[in-house]
Amino acid sequence: MSFIDTITDEIKKAMLAKDKVRLEALRAIKKELLEAKTAKGAGEELTEAATTAILQKMVKQRRDSADIYTAQKRDDLAEPELAQMEVIREFLPAQLSPIELEAAVGRIIKETGATSMKEMGKVMGVASKELAGKAEGKDISETVKRLLSF
Q1: pLDDT tens readout for residues 79-119
Q2: DSSP string spanning 23-49?
Q3: How many domains does the structure of the chain reveal?
Q4: What is the pLDDT of residue 39?
């Protein structure tokens, strides 16, 4: 069963449960996946990495929107964004804890031989590929900066 089929089944369940927030989030996921699948140059099936990247982008969009709404004291608009973000996160791989992230970044720093902030780009390149879907880019970046600044 493909990922799009799984999402379609989840949409049916959300419709039966009359869960509007979940239904909206699932429809958004399906829309993004279908657009990516039918885009110029796209292959027959979306890879797991491409699917994960799409879902991460959607989570980030929801978080950014919620932050803007919260800053404008519009909690009525922020809450649905946060709820949708949680629904989308269900389909992402499990996120690394801060301790696991620090251990992984520390290992990558040793492997690359980086010793200063000047080599942050080299570390980030490897870390971003290796930890894609397991941690957010912002968290990876902050951890790399903290470990290289010693």
Answers
A1: 999 999 999 999 988 888 889 989 999 999 898 888 888 88
A2: HHHHHHHHHHHHHHHHSTT--SS--HH
A3: 2
A4: 79
122 and 74: one domain?
A: no
- Determine the residue type at 31: K
CA atoms within 13 A on the CB side of 101: 24
Tokens of 143: 């951890």
Which residue ranges in the chain fall short of pLDDT 50? none
Q: Are residues 39 and 102 in the same domain?
A: no
pLDDT at 2: 84
Contact 117, 145 (CB under 8 A): yes
Q: Which residue has the tokens 């010693």?
A: 150
Tell me the residue ranges of DSSP E strands in the chain: none
Please enumerate in sequence order all residues whose Cβ is within 8 A of that of 111, keeping only pairs 6 or more positions apart, or say none.
126
